[in-house]
Structure formats: C-alpha cells, structure tokens
Amino acid sequence: MCNDGDGKRRTEKGAAISREERLLAEYEAYIVTVARQKFPRSIVHPDRLADEIEEFAQRIRIKFWLSLQKQNIVAGRAYIRQIAATVSVDMIREHRPMLTLPVNEDGELYQGNLLFTPRQEEQDPALLLAQEESYNDCEEWMAQGVLALPKLQQQAMLRSLKKRINELQPFLEALEQRGADIKGATSPTDEKRQRSQRTSLTIARKKMRTWYSQYAACCVCACNC
Predict the structure, then answer these.
(1) 73 close to 219: Cβ distance less than 8 angstroms
(2) From CA 38, how far away is CA 42, in angstroms rounded?
(3) For the chain, what is the mean pLDDT?
(4) More exposed terminus of the chain, fewer Cβ within 10 Å: N or C?
(5) Exposure class string for 18-29: b at 16+ Cβ within 10 A, else e
(6) Spatial separation of the C-alpha atoms in residues 181 and 66, rounded to whole Å
C-alpha cells in the first residue's frame, strides 16, 4: 500500500509527462514543416528523400522531448529551428565522405611531406549551414524582442540602431518588414524628451540583454541534448 507522498509524486510525474506530450503534439505540424524546409537535400538520393526527411523530423522530436523534460521552453518555434540546425549539421557530417590517405605510384602510403593539405575550415558545408541558420534564428529572435518592447522603449532602441545603419541595415530592414516604425524613430528636440529617451534606451538595452541570454541558453541546450 502506498502512502500519500508516493501518490502525490506519481500524480506530479504524470502531469509532467502529459505536459510534454501536449507540447509535442502542439508543435508536431511545425516540426514537420521545419524538417521539410531545413533538411539538407543534397546529401541523399531523391528516392530516399521522404524517408530521410522523416528521420530528420524524428530526431528533432526526440531532442525537443528531451529538452522539455529538462526545462520550461518559452519560445518553442525558435527552439525547434535551433534543434533543426544542429541536427542538419550532424546529418551532413554523417553523410560526408572520408578523405582518402595519400599514396605513391606503387599504391603505398606516401611518407613524404605533402605540398597541399586539406584545410579543415575551408568551405565546410556543415559549418556554413550552422552559421547561416544561427544568424537567421538569432535575427528573428532579437527582432521579436525589439517589437515586444513598450512603445517608448522600442522607439528609443530603434533610434539607437539607426545610428549604426551601415552595420545593422539588414536587421533594420527585417524589423521594418515585421512592422517596426523605423522612419518614425526620430530624435526629440527638447531636453526633457531627450532625457526620457535616454532612460527608455537604458531600460530597453537591459531587457534586450536578458532576451538574448534566453536565446543563448536555448542554443546551448539544443546542442547538448
């Protein structure tokens, strides 16, 4: 016969499992969509594409399931995209052919010094893919953070970003496509409003640092699952 404590623990465990199953079911359609979009199609024959995409989606599900057991995931879609980028890199590396060892004219292993050696960092498709996916996901995440700021803080942040337009123009364009009023983010002329803008910008920067730290933690966990 079990005591009340054992029953409570079983109930809590059952509730946790139900939450994970509910979230996995909730994001199932999105996982399938991301798998179709992000799968590196060049690594497999077209005849095997459907099976490989399903395998890709299943790996995403498993990593997402494990992550749900470890933490409370706030931005599920961004998290799933980061998992997909990680799994894509893994699959590219699994399918990438091994480099052959250098041999001489007699077919024996070459013992001399090679004039040319493969550079590990030279156009590695897996690394290039990871960089592109990480940049796109980070850009979207940060844009969501800016757009979630209260109006005064958002305008102060946009004014600050516009000062670095040469460096941040793609990000500003992404914000504008999502509805940010870039043109309306102008500098105030009176001293009182300027002080208010500086205060709003300080608060906005603190919020964005926290917002980015959540994304960074999401990336680490997605890679380690």
Answers:
(1) no
(2) 11
(3) 77
(4) N
(5) eebeeeeeebee
(6) 39
